[in-house]
TrEMBL record:
Region of interest called Phosphopantothenate--cysteine ligase, as start-end residue ranges on this chain: 15-226
One GO-annotated biological process of the protein: coenzyme A biosynthetic process
Protein name: Coenzyme A biosynthesis bifunctional protein CoaBC
Keywords: Decarboxylase, Flavoprotein, FMN, Ligase, Lyase, Magnesium, Metal-binding, Multifunctional enzyme
Domain of life: Bacteria
DNA/pantothenate metabolism flavoprotein C-terminal domain segment(s): 10-217
Cited function: Catalyzes two steps in the biosynthesis of coenzyme A. In the first step cysteine is conjugated to 4'-phosphopantothenate to form 4-phosphopantothenoylcysteine, in the latter compound is decarboxylated to form 4'-phosphopantotheine.
Full-protein residues shown: 177 to 402 of 407
ATP-binding found in the keyword field: no
Pathway: Cofactor biosynthesis; coenzyme A biosynthesis; CoA from (R)-pantothenate: step 2/5; Cofactor biosynthesis; coenzyme A biosynthesis; CoA from (R)-pantothenate: step 3/5
Entry's cofactor comment: Binds 1 FMN per subunit.
Signal sequence extent: none
Residues annotated for CTP binding in this entry: D103, K113, F147, K161, K165
Gene that produces this protein: coaBC
C-alpha cells in the first residue's frame, strides 16, 4: 500500500494541464502567437499519468509529441482556452497552467484576408482574460500551479505572480539562460510558494523537472487533505 502510493502519488486525482502557445487571429490566414513549444506541459502530462492521475491537457499551438494515455482538448485562442479550462475546473484536483497565454488579442478579427493598404497601419489589441487569475478567484479545493517564463528578476516576478493569481505553487524559469528556453528539452526551474523560494533545481530534462514539480504538489495536496 505505502509502496504503491509512493510510486503513484497522484492515483485517483484529476489533473488538468494547459500547454502550448495561444494563437490570436487577425484574419483567416494571419495570427499573433509566441515561442512556446508545449514541451513542458506535455512533460507534466506524461509525469502526472505515470504518477497515476487521470490527465487532461488543454493544448494550444504545440510542436511537442503527444504522450499516450491522456485526454487531449485542442484550442487556439486564449478565450477558447479559458472556456475549456473553466468547464473542467470544478471536477479537477490539480490544475497546472503551463501554457503561454497571449496577453493581448486583436480587437477585430477580419472575416476575410486583410488587403495591403497604406505604408503604416495600426493594429489595435485588447487584453485577454487572465485564466490563472480567474481560477485563483474561483478555486475551492483545487491545487493551482502557475508558470512564469522571465528574462529578468525571477524571484520578484515569480512572487508577484503567485500572490496576484493566488497560486499554491509557481514554477519560474529564466528563458534567457542556456538550457531553459522555449523549445528546449531541458529546463532550469525555481519553485515558489507563498513564503518564498522552495526549490532551485539544476538543469535537468523537462520530464525530470515535471516529476519534481508533481512530487512536491502531491505532498502538499495530501497535507491539505489530512
Ligand atoms: N496566464 C493565464 N492567462 C493569461 C496570461 C497568463 O492563465 N491571459 C498564466 C500563464 O499560463 C502562467 C501565469 O499566468 O501560468 C504567468 O504567466 P505570465 O505571462 O508569466 O504572467 P503575466 O501575468 O501575463 O505577466 P507578464 O506577461 O507581464 O510577465
Ligand atoms: Ca503574459
Amino acid at each position: 500500500m505505502f509502496a504503491e502510493s509512493a510510486r503513484k502519488p497522484l492515483a485517483g486525482k484529476k489533473v488538468l494541464i494547459t500547454a502550448g502557445g495561444t494563437v490570436e487571429r487577425l484574419d483567416p490566414v494571419r495570427y499573433l502567437t509566441n515561442d512556446s513549444s508545449g514541451k513542458m506541459g506535455f512533460a507534466l502530462a506524461a509525469a502526472a499519468r505515470d504518477f497515476g492521475a487521470d490527465v487532461t491537457v488543454v493544448a494550444a499551438k504545440t510542436t511537442a509529441k503527444i504522450p499516450d494515455g491522456i485526454s487531449l482538448v485542442r484550442v487556439e485562442s486564449a478565450e477558447q482556452m479559458l472556456e475549456a479550462v473553466l468547464s473542467r475546473f470544478e471536477q479537477s484536483d490539480l490544475v497546472i497552467k503551463s501554457a503561454a497565454v497571449a496577453d493581448y488579442r486583436p480587437v477585430v478579427r477580419a472575416e476575410s484576408k486583410i488587403k495591403k493598404s497604406g505604408d503604416r497601419i495600426m493594429l489595435e489589441l485588447v487584453k485577454t482574460t487572465d485564466i490563472l487569475q480567474t481560477l485563483g478567484e474561483r478555486k475551492t479545493s483545487q491545487f493551482l500551479i502557475g508558470f512564469a517564463a522571465e528574462t529578468g528578476d525571477l524571484d520578484h516576478y515569480a512572487m508577484d505572480k503567485l500572490q496576484r493569481k493566488r497560486a499554491d505553487l509557481l514554477v519560474a524559469n529564466d528563458v534567457s539562460e542556456d538550457g531553459a528556453g522555449f523549445n528546449t528539452d531541458t529546463n532550469i526551474i525555481r519553485i515558489y510558494d507563498k513564503d518564498g523560494l522552495v526549490e532551485a533545481l539544476p538543469i535537468m530534462s523537462k520530464l525530470d523537472a515535471a516529476k519534481r514539480v508533481l512530487k512536491l504538489a502531491s505532498e502538499r495536496m495530501t497535507q491539505t487533505e489530512a
